[in-house]
Amino acid sequence: MKIKRLKIVIALVSFLQILTVNAQKNYSIEGFITGIKDSTLISLGRNDGNLISTIATDTVIGGKFRFSGKIDHAEAFMILGRGPGFPSMWLDVWVAPNTTVKISGSDKFLKTWKVESPIKQQKELNLYIEATKAELNQLQRLSVSRTAIFEKLQKASPEDRKKAKPGIDSIGRLQDSLSVLMHQKEITLLSNRAISPIWMDKLNGLAMSVKYTHKDLRQPVIKLYNKLNNAQRESPKGREIAAYLYPPRVVKNGEPMADTALYTLEGKASSLAQFKGKYLLLDFWSIGCGPCISAMPDLRKVSEVYKDSLTVISLSVDSKKEIWKKASAQEKISWVNLSDGNGMAGIAARYGVQGIPHYVIISPSGEVLTSWTGFSKGETEEKIKKFIH
To answer: Which domain holds residue 267?
Structure first.
């Protein structure tokens, strides 16, 4: 009898432990936004590198929306608004096991909605949002205006589009000047704070801006980069920052191909040199790139038709291996499929990749012959035919 009772007690304790563990993995996001009509759609997303994956969508009723789920560790999600009046931006929201995050606001400018949270990453992120709130609100307003103009011009005549261009350019210049002001405030804040993952994310954004748009901010951003220790510089984020601030030399047509340590999905080491002896077609791609996915049938065709003289090598710039693996299975990639794991900061930078899909044709002896960005049906084969007769 005592043994039976003991078994019951043990089973009950185990059951309660399971309930406790499950409860600790729960998270919830509760939003209350005035100034938004019922039936407005709000989505919860995750940034999977080059792709925003929608986790869930809720309909606003009485100004309220809610998301909940289970999670094993603190993670950054995204809140996005669907429909007219929302800017082409999102609100970064950190969630963690056993936490409730509250969001409030009074308009559709979701980038600056207030996020109340016990999570340390969110508290740190809030400091940057608060410091740049004025610029962010103006950027959101301009984003909405720009989107409205483009939607109106979809059915407009070429003449009307031409007339609208000065106005669009004016909005672009205002956005650019506001971005500079915002970045300057971020630099000041970063200069006075300890290095953290959020700090690194912000520095990465600034470094990207230096490379593509705001080169005048280079020196203060380099000063921040110089604060990193060796371990931080050698981290994936640190290497990405360095690639933006100190872009590697881009290999040119007629020069020997750039190479590096590459890996298969199974983790087997490889390199481009391994495939010398045939023409090589390099395909830089990502799951979040629509044209990249549209190009897959053409790549499959040329990999089969020209297999005796050409090796097609797809090089994923998705930094998360699980995303690369999922996309590869989805597209049934049967040709050579590799990655260096460094996204756009690795071998892609050596080939000057700024947009994808990006293609490079290399001679059997390892010389770069030509490269181009973008996809149109049949173009890949036409390019190949210029070298393979």
So the answer is: 262-385
